[in-house]
Amino acid sequence: MNFFRITPDPCGSRVNRSFCYARDYGPLNSGMPFLSSIELEREIEYWKVNPNPPGMIISETGSKWPDFLPHSGSCPRYFISERIIESLTQEGIAFARQTEMPIAKIRSKRLRDKPAPKYFVLEADSGMEVDYVASGRTFDTEGKVIDPNPLKAPPLKFNRASWNGADLFSIAFNSNRRPSCSLICTDRVVELAKRDGWTNVRFDPVDVV
User: Fold this and answer.
1) Which of 22, 24, 32, 124 lies in the 20 to 30 Å Cα band around 46?
2) Residues 64-74, mean pLDDT to the nearest whole number
3) Residue partners of 147: CB distance under 8 A and separation at least 6
């Protein structure tokens, strides 16, 4: 069994430059359970200075709606179309939660007359642990991982024996990072993406020991 990190092409630029992306988003009245309390507090402070309407602000560039819509901010890293939700559900691949992210503003003139899909934040439960020793990480006095400089840090390695058998899951981090913004999948999801023609997505292999 092989494992892959699900990643959109950044701002639709690597494979197909015609895809749009989300520049930003504003607070949802229905709540944003995909954000931790600390992340939510930070976003609220940001919105006080940079007010946004509820939902996504779509980029000026792009003439097509992708299935995986990149987000130029931090978390979530991308939004997925309703077609992906339907594809996973029909295949019987479980996930933890979906939160609809409406579109508040479309800046691309080429997209305004094209029907937009519904987009969601997708979350999955933790399904595999990081092998921090094999990854060369160190710990503080409380047993928490000391996150190194991301530009210098070697890639994380994951403990195959800890995998719970799920085809779509997040990683259980022993640090301050939340798992919901980083999804891992098996070959089954990769094959599903090929079969159903998911757009603007790639699958990067992860190291498993």
Assistant:
1) 124
2) 91
3) 153, 175, 176, 177
Residues 116 and 103: beta-carbon distance below 8 Å: yes
Asked if residue 173 has pLDDT above 70, the reply is no
The residue behind tokens 């503003």 is 105
Q: Measured between alpha carbons, how far is 79 from 20 in angstroms, rounded to an integer?
A: 12
- Other C-beta atoms closer than 10 Å to the C-beta of 83 total 15
Q: What is the pTM of this model?
A: 0.87
Task: Tell me the residue length of the chain.
Answer: 209
Torsion of CA 70, 104, 84, 184, to 10 degrees: 40
How many Å is the maximal CA-CA distance in the chain? 57
Task: Kindly report, residue by residue over 15-62, the tens digit of the pLDDT.
Answer: 567 899 999 999 999 899 998 888 889 999 999 999 999 999 999 989
